[in-house]
Specification:
Blueprint: H1 13-23, H2 26-37, E1 42-46, E2 64-69, H3 72-81, E3 88-92, H4 95-98, E4 105-111, H5 119-129, E5 133-144, H6 153-161, H7 170-179, E6 183-193, E7 201-211
Parallel strand pairs: 1-2, 1-4, 2-3, 4-5
Antiparallel strand pairs: 5-7, 6-7
Length: about 210
C-alpha cells in the first residue's frame, strides 16, 4: 500500500501539503532547516515541491531563497503561495541545466529528495549540485533512514505511506556520497516526531554536510 495517486503533489498540491504538515515531521524539520540556514544569506533547495520547506526560512532575516523542481504543478502552487515575498523564487527546471547558470549559494539543500530516486540519478544530482555551492558554502542532505531497530509509527510510515522507493540505511547513504565523489564533512542522526504532536519521536533522519574531497 502506497500513498494514493490522488494525494500526490502533482495532482493535489494543497492536499499533499496538508498531509505532510500532519504526518511529515514538519515541526521538527522546520527547526532543523533553520539551524542549517543560520548565518546564511542564499539558499537553494533541490526538489522544493510546494515550498513546504521554504516556509522554514520565512522569518530568517536577509535570506534569499531559490527552490527548483521539475514538477510544474508544485512550482505554480509555490509561486502563488509566496507571491508577496520577492526574496523567494521558484524555478521549474532540471537541476542539470540549472547548473549552467553558475550561481553560488551559501546553502544547497536536498531535503528528503534522494529516497525518491535510484542510485544512478541520485549520484548525478549530487554531482550536478556541487558547482552551485559557494566557496564557503555547504551542501546539506537530509533523508529518512531505514534502521531495523526502529519500531512504532515510523516503521508503518516507511512501509505503507512513504512513496519513496529508495529509503536507504545510513551506510547506504554514505556509500552513495562516496560514489558521487563527495566527502562527508559531518553526519548525525536525529529522531523526530512523525506527526504534528511533539511525541513520540520515532522518525529517524540522517543529516549530512558534504564537501568535495
Amino acid at each position: 500500500m502506497k500513498t494514493p495517486a490522488w494525494l500526490s503533489q502533482t495532482h493535489a498540491p494543497f492536499l499533499w501539503e496538508v498531509f505532510q504538515l500532519l504526518l511529515g515531521s514538519h515541526k521538527d524539520k522546520t527547526s532543523l532547516y533553520r539551524s542549517l540556514a543560520q548565518g546564511r544569506t542564499t539558499v537553494l533547495e533541490i526538489g522544493c515541491s510546494t515550498g513546504i520547506t521554504a516556509s522554514a526560512f520565512q522569518k530568517l532575516p536577509g535570506i534569499r531563497y531559490t527552490g527548483i523542481d521539475i514538477d510544474s504543478s508544485v512550482i505554480g502552487y509555490a509561486k502563488k503561495k509566496f507571491r508577496k515575498r520577492p526574496n523567494f523564487d521558484f524555478v521549474c527546471e532540471d537541476l542539470r541545466s540549472f547548473t549552467e547558470r553558475k550561481h553560488g549559494y551559501d546553502l544547497v539543500l536536498f531535503a528528503g529528495i534522494l529516497h525518491h530516486v535510484d542510485d544512478a540519478l541520485g549520484i548525478e544530482l549530487l554531482r550536478a549540485s556541487t558547482s552551485l555551492v559557494d566557496g564557503q558554502g555547504t551542501l546539506a542532505v537530509i533523508e529518512p533512514l531505514f534502521d531495523a531497530r526502529d519500531r512504532g509509527f515510523n516503521r508503518l510510515w516507511l512501509k505503507y505511506l512513504e512513496k519513496g522507493e529508495h529509503v536507504r540505511t545510513n551506510d547506504q547513504m554514505k556509500e552513495l556520497f562516496d560514489r558521487a565523489g563527495l566527502h562527508v564533512r559531518s553526519e548525525r542522526q536525529v529522531m523526530m516526531g512523525q506527526t504534528s504532536l511533539p511525541l513520540p519521536k520515532d522518525a529517524r533522519f540522517g543529516v549530512y554536510e558534504l564537501a568535495n574531497p
